[in-house]
Amino acid sequence: MRYLLLVILLSPALAALWLWQQWPGAERVPAQYNPFAPVNVDDPLNALTTMKLKALGSDPERCAAALARARDAGAIDYATVGSPEIGQCQLENVVRVRSTSVAFSSSFLATCPMALAWTLYERHRLQPAAREIFDAPVSRVDHVGSFACRNVYGRESGRRSEHATAEALDVTGFRFADGSRARVIADWEDGGPRGEFLHRALSESCDTFGNALGPEYNAAHRDHFHLGMRGYGICR
Ligand SMILES: [Zn+2]
């Protein structure tokens, strides 16, 4: 809600910026502060990041180009899947993520914006936290899936889960290059480095994801983090 207000207040400034950026020879605003510049995995994250990722949801070509650039930079390996209908669920512009700077317990389907959101999160938040806390990068992420053709848990009719469109990943734990592990179910309450890492991993995920739910949200999330694309910065 606060972001919506921000967008409304900033609209005239955005329009002026857009016009300026169309002017031939105009000095360009650094990409991370220019809402119209393409998403680049090396750009620092800021308040525009989630907005830009969302906008890519309605611009498949631009998103595919950004993801291809991320692959060229060695940040992600994936296979393009397209827009299949699986069960009763229509997927839009999904890829199968095979690996990033980490291995995954299994490859997973992700919309193009979510694949980018993960890549940015990992590069700018997850790996720096791991190096600070464990002095070793995350080497593997354990998860229990991204796509499931179903409604939000506890609702028999109505709202489709973000998992029905492959717009959320359920992460259960992390393994580090030094052999350490941090598991949501076992280590969330841990007072040492594992707990510290998990709390940081969840709270900072909202710098690229729209919402992140963990053990303190409800009992259904006691063993995993739900990292999803809907919303703006709701992490709990
Ligand atoms: Zn979930």
Verbal overview:
This is Extensin family protein. It comes from Kushneria aurantia. Pfam families: Extensin-like_C (PF06904). Residues 63-236 form the Extensin-like C-terminal domain. InterPro entries: Extensin-like_C. With 236 residues, the protein is of the alpha+beta class. The protein has one domain. The protein is 34% helix and 22% strand. It is built from 6 helices and 11 strands. It has helices spanning 2-22, 49-56, 60-72, 112-134, 184-187, 193-204; strands spanning 77-82, 85-86, 89-90, 94-99, 103-111, 138-143, 168-176, 181-183, 211-213, 225-228, 234-235. Strands 1, 4, 5, 6, 7, 8, 9, 10 and 11 form a 9-stranded mixed sheet that branches. It has a two-stranded antiparallel sheet with strand order 2-3. A hairpin with a 2-residue loop joins β2 (85-86) and β3. α2 packs antiparallel against α4 (112-134), α3 packs parallel to α4 and α4 packs antiparallel against α6. The chain starts with a helix and ends with a strand. It binds zinc ion.
